[in-house]
Amino acid sequence: MDSGMSIKGDQVAMTTEVRVPELPESVSDGVVVCWHKQAGDSIRRDEALVDIETDKVVLEVPAPADGVLEKIMFSDGDTVTSDQVLGVINVNGAATAVVNAPVTDHQPDDKAARTPGPGPAARHLMAENGLNTGAIKASGKQGRVTRGDVLSHLENQPSPAETIRQAEPARTETARLVQVTPGLPEVEEDRPQKRVPMSRLRARVAERLMQATQGTAMLTTFNEVNMEPIKSLRERHRETFEKNHGVRLGFMSFFVRAAAEALKRHPDINSSLDGDDIVYHGFCDIGVAISTDRGLVVPILRNAEYMSLAEIETDILEFANRGRDGKLSMDDITGGTFSITNGGVFGSMLSTPILNPPQSAILGMHKIQDRPVVEEGVVVVRPIMYLALTYDHRIVDGKSAVTFLKTIVDLLEDPASMLLDL
Question: Model pTM?
Answer without folding.
Answer: 0.64
